[in-house]
Amino acid sequence: VLVTDLPWLPPAYLSAQARAVAGADAPAGEALQRLAGHVLNTGQAAAVGRAIAKCREAGRDLSPLAPFRLGVLAGATYDLVNEGMPAAAARHGVALELVTADYDQVMQEALDPGSRINTERLDAVLLAVDHRWLGLDRPALGGGDAVERAVERLAAVAEALKAPVILQTVPAPPQSLFGSYDRRVRGAVRSLVDETNRALVGLADDTGGYLLDVAALAERIGLDLWFDPVHWLAHKLPFAPACNAAYADMLGRLLGAIRGKARKCLVLDLDNTCWGGVIGDDGLQGIKIGQGSAAGEAFLAVQRMATELHGRGVVLAVSSKNDEETARRPFRDHPDMLLKESHLAVFQANWNDKPSNLEAIAGALNIGLDALVLLDDNPAERAQVRAALPMVAVPELPNDPAWYPWVLSAAGYFEAVAFSDEDRLRAASYASNAGRAEVKAKARDLGDYLASLDMTLELGPFDTHGRQRIAQLINKTNQFNLTTRRYTEAEVAAAQADPDVFTLQARLTDRFGDLGMIGVVIARPLVEEEGLAWELDTWLMSCRVLGRRVEEGMLAAVVREARAAGVSRLVGQYRPTAKNGMVADHYLKLGFTPAEDGPEGERRFVLACAAYVEPTLPFKRGTAG
Amino acid sequence: MAGPQHGSLQVDRDQVRTRVQDLLRDIVDDDGLKITDTTTAADVDWWDSLTHLKLLVAIEEAWDLNFQVAELSAPENVGELVDLIRSKMPA
Questions:
Q1: Are B60 and A241 in contact (CB < 8 Å)?
Q2: Would you say residue A147 has pLDDT above 60?
């Protein structure tokens, strides 16, 4: 996981349509920000930048992007770096216009009151200089005032400029003179750079300027990768071109923060994001959270990060596909939870789609959707939110939760240019009562989204290969489970072997990967006056595939097989438990009609096979087993 | 060198040159731009020093390779640049 790859951004598989946006008449700001929200190579970033420039020249509306005129004074060849800046700024809500100076004209431009940099009415000027321009590139072992001179030079520039400055901290070049002892020798380059960086913080405070912590970026990338001697010698490039995108993004988020575009609220998914496992299935004892296991500590680190953000004023909310009571239990009853209900401004646990819940959260907090960040382990949920609400920031996440805090931090959603007492209190000022927000039911066309998932549903009878997983699902699934009948692996094998018993296993694959076995049906023959029926003894599904019409695909397979077996009716059962309220209407939604309750008080539903019409479903079909 | 092998090398060279042309089209923002092996920077008005720098960096990104200092100023024309790229590609 490399910060230079900006791995939190989704890949640009819709290759940048920047020219199309620039050519169209529609408002361009949102489309450009959406394009800029993907991983862009150098050419794509430049194309987005050109599109922004063309729109501006044509006088087109770039809102919601906030205009920003930035001067760049660089002590090196900055043309390539500059070229990536507008796309990165757009990603962070800013329509950037650059005013640049020629190579190494920093002092001349700054000190001349009639220079372009001083007459263009800029919002800020970036002072893009490093240890070489500052004269810190050689040791001063005999003493001297290298640091004072460097800081005075910057102070003089800052004072002469009409606009606020953005100062850069200085990455230390990797060559050492003494080795570890460099840190202890006054006048070694490492010491000079460290001292200068400390002084720069004070200079930013004194001049009312901003600080771009380039030294921190170079360190996290690695100084050996950051400094590129070949491109420095050949073209005077300030750092390796591979670092351009990360540098531009860092600048973009600072400009965004200056314009008030930094995100305000972190929305957390729960299952497999805040703890390991699924609370509805694994229960309070089964989820992984807390000390004692690496996995539990990984999720604890996610919670710690969230509480630290809360401590600096970021509002926290929850959006989880769960029964509300179930979802709240860990917060109330699990001793290892760091995250408490008191940290949460809104608590959305229901079975509505995530976009509707995010709209409800933004509405309840009275902030824009563009102030939200969603942390969610489920790639399909992420894709759905990005498709429906492109203004919500949704970081890509690696499979390993150990990296979640890294991603959330590296993506820089909550960049700040100040920290006040109000900030400290802000999160608390949003009634931190973990209240529920009303979801406005909205008819969302899911067709395109489901089609884009490129799903293959494999359906087939039980087999020996799948038996263990089938038994596991039968014994573990609590929520999407119509009858909650538990069977041992031997009983599963018996059902598989019995020619009168119908069995079905379902596996799902989408473009994000293989979700494995996600559904099970067992039907037993029932001789009725009207003819042969199948009683649906067991029907369960993994909650990971909710909202994807998998249950409809499974029903289609059951009816096909039923017809082939001469079965005229299906009889569904629903046995209510504390956890399976979400499937109370399962059979009604599938077109069954209610029938008399069964002998054990179970609710029963009937479907005539002859009346069933198979809908068009978003799956390619495969055969399992 | 045997004929068929020479043929496949020619295909490789064409592919590399086409990709270089695509990179230049992106850089200059001109979909109609064309280059041949004998094109030199001096021949065309759009190939200035900044375009050249952008091209070198784009080539490094596209083929995931790193030029040496001496190589950066060596190619006299597109053909030599294509040969240089091919010499640095994994076999």
A1: yes
A2: yes
